[in-house]
Amino acid sequence: MKLDREIELLGVHAEGEIGRVIVSGAPDIPGATMVDKMNHINNVDDSLMRVCLYEPRGASQMTINLLTPPCREGADMGFFPMQADGAHAMSGSNTICVTTALLEAGIVQPTGPKTVVKLDTPAGLIEATADWTGDKVERVTIDMPVSFVEHLDHPLEVPGLGTIHVDVAFGGCYFALVRAEDLGYKIAPEEARDLVELGARINAAAQEQIEVQHPEVESFNRVEYPMFVAGHGKEIRNATIIFPGRIDRSPCGTGTAARLAVMLERGEISAEDVVSSRSIIDGEFIATIKSMTTCGDRTAICPTVSGRGWIYGRHFLGVHPTDPFPLGYTLSDCWGAEKPR
Q: Under a CB-based contact definition with an 8 Å cutoff, are residues 79 and 119 in contact?
């Protein structure tokens, strides 16, 4: 068997959300910073993403995590997640997947029962603390990016809904948060399809009507995801809608961080509270506010999110010289009519 471009990946999931991790075979990605590397995938050469993520070697219902040498001094590894619409700056569930893979595969050596792995990402240097038992990562606690509120109760004109109000917050990327019950829905498996279709309309409206700009990172300048929210106080539930039309199976780490900032701003929680954040399939992240800070002129929080990850398989991908789909393909039945960015 002769295959070109052989790539090895570990299959990992965090609370049900698949985040495969490329552990060998990836080319060197140009760029002096992780933002540069992410932008290279998005704007210059997305062939690696297409080979691993697009059909017939991948699927729209997963993320591919690319490991790179770190750009920041002191980091153990660089990484960023690649999804159907391109490379992204940060993901909590995928940080759990990557940390689990690095330690359980022996790529990074554990240092004890509490092993700190420093990850260089486009959203900044992320510290992930793994509970290590000797052969298994039981839990990963992430020091998430500085998170803050951009807008509360921002009016949004959505076709078929009229004017709704969303909270906009940053938790590693920008989210538009909308309470599901305000629109007559609940976050439950039987409503998943309806939430996806509604979320697509909300996200299109948010990207057109809501202006955002991170005070320190120029490329963070658009709403990335809509997130339906439910619950109050220390017991919450989230459903993040991911392109091309699916719900995050995990509670969404970056979304949970953004929601903590909103809830603190609204007085719904205190900075000392420990929050249980659950997904549509009842996976759980535990979230806390480690400290208060600022980001530009905004009051901000330093949140932590913890959850569990499991390695479920090992994958070897390649492209035969005669394969008619060397860079994969997408069809609108699974990938949507919109072209990925």
A: yes
Q: How far apart are CA 155 and CA 153, in angstroms?
A: 6
Q: Whole-angstrom Cα distance, residue 88 to residue 225?
A: 11
Tell me the pTM. 0.94
Q: Active-site residue among 24, 47, 60, 91?
A: 91
pLDDT band (50, 70, 90) for residue 4: confident
Beta bridge partners of 4: 319
- CA dist 212 and 168 (Å) reads 9
Each residue's pLDDT tens digit, 64-109: 999 999 999 999 999 999 999 999 999 999 999 999 999 999 999 9
- Rounded to 10°, the helix 92-104/253-265 angle is 140
Q: Is the dihedral of CA 328, 331, 336, 341 positive or negative?
A: positive
DSSP line for 42-61: HHT--HHHHHHHSBTT--TT
Name the one residue in this structure whose structure tokens are 């990402």: 121
Q: What type of residue sits at position 280? A: I
Structural domains of the chain in order of their starting residue, each with its CATH number: 4-142+310-335 (3.10.310.10), 147-307 (3.10.310.10)
Continuous H helices in 122-189: none
Beta-sheet pairing, 284-295 with 298-307: antiparallel
Identity at 31, one-letter amino acid code: G
Please say if 91 is a catalytic residue. yes
For the segment 142-155, the average pLDDT, to the nearest whole number, is: 97
